[in-house]
């Protein structure tokens, strides 16, 4: 999976041609209010990435719970992506 997705669909693995929403619908829906967490590898270490709805990486942290706390402290709604 691409660590630096160009849009949110790429980040969560949805083929936009098979979905009724286009790539910009998800990115614009709640873009300022939603962040999601997914596992990523950085220099061989398993960490958790925090991403904006448009796929922009905001931060990486070592623990999933720390990711959710960080998101909430920044007044965002947390979503999990597997």
User: Numbering strands along the chain, what is their spatial order in the largest sheet?
Assistant: 3-2-1-4
Residue ranges: pLDDT <50 for 5 or more in a row? 1-6
Mean pLDDT: 76
Topology order in helix (H) and strand (E) letters: HHEEEHE
Helices and strands: which structural class? alpha+beta
Helix content: 25-40%
Element layout with pairings:
Layout (H helix, E strand, L loop, with lengths): L7 H5 L10 H6 L5 E9 L2 E8 L4 E5 L2 H10 L3 E4 L2
Can you tell me about this structure?
By secondary structure, the protein is an alpha+beta fold. It has one domain (8-80). The protein is built from 3 helices and 4 strands; from the N terminus they run H-H-E-E-E-H-E. The protein has helices at 8-12, 23-28, 64-73; strands at residues 34-42, 45-52, 57-61, 77-80. The protein has a 4-stranded mixed beta sheet, covered by helices on one side. Mean pLDDT is 76; it is low at 1-6.
Short description:
With 82 residues, the chain is an alpha+beta fold.
Descriptors:
single chain, about 80 residues, alpha+beta, four-stranded mixed beta sheet, globular, disordered N terminus
């Amino acid at each position: 999976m691409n660590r630096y997705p160009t849009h949110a669909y790429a980040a969560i693995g949805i083929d936009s041609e098979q979905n009724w929403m286009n790539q910009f619908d998800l990115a614009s829906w709640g873009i300022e209010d939603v962040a999601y967490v997914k596992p990523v590898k950085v220099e061989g270490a398993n960490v958790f990435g925090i991403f904006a709805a448009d796929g922009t990486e905001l931060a990486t942290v070592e623990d999933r719970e720390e990711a959710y706390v960080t998101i909430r402290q920044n007044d965002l709604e947390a979503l999990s992506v597997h």
